[in-house]
Write a structure and sequence with these properties.
This protein is mostly beta strands. The protein has three domains: 6-93, Tailspike Protein, Chain (Beta Complex), CATH 2.170.14; 114-203 and 352-400, Jelly Rolls (Sandwich), CATH 2.60.120.40; 213-344, Sandwich (Jelly Rolls), CATH 2.60.120. Helices cover 1% and strands 45% of the residues. It has a five-stranded antiparallel sheet with strand order 10-7-28-13-25, with no helix packed on it. Strands 9, 14, 15, 16 and 26 form a five-stranded antiparallel sheet that branches. Strands 3-2-5-6 form a four-stranded antiparallel sheet, with no helix packed on it. The chain is elongated and about 105 Å long.
């Protein structure tokens, strides 16, 4: 990184007298340390534009715009009448150095170091099952020019000490069965202090079942003609269905992935068929559309199953009602088919809303080689996005206490 100036920290909070009143109209003069030679100060960290020296204080004893310096200096504070209030000598304002006072007053001042970055409303796509570094491209502020927002996307503190690091990401809508993780890395590896704090978001693949089990047929299809033992007895002519409708309640936005049925069919001669259709129709009364059909031919075997994974109009939408149509059919040829329908299972995936994850950690930086980055990981089976809006996803940190 190119040499950059350090912001003069005292001007952030302002200078106050013993009564707590600001030195309005006073001045702060910056000299080369141990001399009365004025030091060049700047309006920007890149040292592109010199600032006025002495610095005139506003009504808050501060200045509206930041002032930067890159030298060993002496500061002299005067009130509005030109009386010298305080002198600090042998101060260092330079990249990578601690701001410290060695005057007779014995006051020790700490150089403020802070940064805040985001992605400027540009989403970042995260590949499946891959540890991916978040590329924080836009700086709100970076007081010590320690954050790299163009190549490595990392914070490398050049002042030793303890730092509070905060990272937050907001995922776009995620499919079910997805695990997402957010990590803070130190020097290229997961930071030990927060490894177990990495957030995880999981959702399951839910199911809806109708019917009961092999010991007792489903009472919910009583509309089908049955005998005293629970057998579904077809009454229609050959090749025609006996049927029953079972209303369903499916979650809006879910994606149906599979229909299974379970039952038993007994055949005297030719096979019959037991089937279930997953249906939907517009609530205005339009005709039913078939989303899936699961069926099996009667063969006398208990526990016979059928399934369908080719789902039409698979996403459950508002404005529709959903039902399961159970059918027993006698094939042409005059055979008698008795059947028990044990149940059906509709499997679907749900979509999470935008999941938010955060890490807060206190880390120790050596002020030279230690660096910090953020990584994410997700297991949805496809690429997913983290939102780029500043309020949703950001990375920041600041130095606290002494080194």
């Amino acid at each position: 990184m190119a040499a950059r100036a350090i912001q003069i920290s005292e001007l952030l909070s302002g200078f106050l007298d013993a009564n707590g009143d600001p030195y309005s109209g006073g001045t702060l003069t910056v000299y080369d340390e141990g001399t009365l030679n004025l030091t060049t100060i700047y309006t920007d960290a890149a040292m592109g534009t010199p600032a006025s020296n002495p610095i005139t204080l506003d009504t808050y004893g501060s200045v509206a715009n930041p002032v930067f310096c890159n030298d060993n200096v002496k500061l002299v504070l005067k009130d509005s009448l030109g009386n010298t209030i305080k002198t600090w000598d042998e101060l260092t304002y330079a990249t990578g150095n601690l701001f410290a006072e060695h005057s007779s007053a014995g006051v020790h001042l700490v150089q403020p170091v802070a940064f805040s970055v985001h992605r400027n409303s540009v989403n970042q796509t995260i590949a499946d099952s891959t540890y991916t570094k978040i590329e924080w491209t836009t700086e709100d502020f970076d007081t010590n020019s320690d954050y790299d927002n163009s190549v490595n996307y990392r914070f490398t503190p050049t002042v030793a000490g303890k730092y509070v690091i905060v990272a937050t990401v907001q995922w776009d809508a995620l499919p079910g069965n997805t695990t997402t993780l957010l990590y803070l890395y130190e020097n290229g590896a997961i930071a030990n202090a927060i490894q177990n704090v990495a957030s995880e978001v999981r959702s399951s693949t839910p199911e809806i079942s109708v019917g009961t089990d092999s010991a007792r047929p489903a009472s919910s299809i009583a509309a089908v003609v049955s005998d005293a033992n629970g057998w579904i007895v077809p009454t229609a002519a050959d090749g025609v269905d006996d049927r029953a409708i079972i209303p369903l309640c499916l979650p809006i936005g879910a994606t149906v992935t599979r229909l299974d049925i379970h039952g038993l069919a007994v055949v005297d001669a030719n096979y019959g068929t037991v089937a279930a259709d997953l249906l939907r129709r517009d609530i205005t009364g339009a005709s039913w559309d078939t989303m899936a059909t699961a069926s099996f031919d009667g063969n006398g075997a208990q526990g016979t199953t059928g399934n369908d994974t080719s789902i039409s109009n698979a996403v459950v939408a508002t404005g529709y009602e959903y039902s399961l149509l159970v059918r027993v059919q006698v094939l042409a040829g005059g055979a008698t088919t008795n059947a028990k329908f044990y149940g059906a299972k509709i499997t679907f995936t749900t979509t999470n809303g935008g999941e938010s994850q955060s890490i807060v950690a206190v880390v120790d930086a050596n002020g030279s080689t230690d660096y910090f980055e953020t990584f994410v990981y997700q297991t949805s089976g496809a690429s997913q996005d983290i939102l780029g809006t500043k309020r949703d996803s950001f990375f920041m940190g600041y130095r606290v206490g002494f080194s």
